[in-house]
Amino acid sequence: MVQEVLINDDDYYVPDANQLMTENDTLDNFATSKQKRLLIGSLYSSLQQQTFLAAANIGIYHTDGQPAIVPDVFLSLDVQVPQNWWEKQNRCYMVWRFGKPPEVVIEIVSNIEGDELGKKLKIYEQMRASYYIVYDQNQQLGEKVLRFYEFRGRRYFETSEN
Q: What predicted TM-score, i.e. pTM, was given to this entire model?
């Protein structure tokens, strides 16, 4: 139940923001939305000579019969969105259609419900994405703000920060 807070003597109440859900796995907040735009915009500005696809909040289907995973941001080199991108089969990233998983997937932690170091890490590992990056600015998952995982052989290894 949402608590209401009296803000003046005119019986005007507003919900207590601490009691409201402001983000979850499908709902962004202003900060993560802006971070995603900055990442995507920076990639398209700086990699102008490279063919690639960078996107935010786009479903990646990695295994037939399994639901999509939706990273905050991903980068896939040497691929591009098909010209007929409005067709249903071209509206998401299907690993088997593009011929490979993305090289980089990034998760921006907004709460502890996302399971970035558990379920999501395992899915990206199974998908064989070359790099998995977890940005945890508010340190909700521990002391590290930034975690880098590199796929080697059959699993991820966390690389140390420099």
A: 0.80
- Within 10 angstroms of residue 101's Cβ, the number of other Cβ atoms is 20
> Does residue 98 contact residue 61 with C-beta atoms inside 8 Å?
no
Nearest to 127 by CA among 79, 62, 77, 81: 62
* Residue (of 109, 104, 115, 158) closest to 137 by Cα position: 109
Task: For strands 60-61 and 93-94, give the pairing.
Answer: parallel
**CATH numbers and ranges of domains, the chain:** 24-159 (3.90.1570.10)
Residue-wise pLDDT tens digits, 86-138: 887 788 998 988 999 999 999 999 877 889 999 999 999 999 999 999 999 99
The 3-class SS string of the chain reads CCCEEECCCCCCEEECHHHCCCCCCCCCCHHHHHHHHHHHHHHHHHCCCCCEEEEECCCEECCCCCCCECCCEEEEECCCCCCCCCCHHHCCEEHHHHCCCCCEEEEECCCHHHCCCCHHHHHHHHHCCCEEEEECCCCCCCCCCEEEEEEECCEEEEECCC
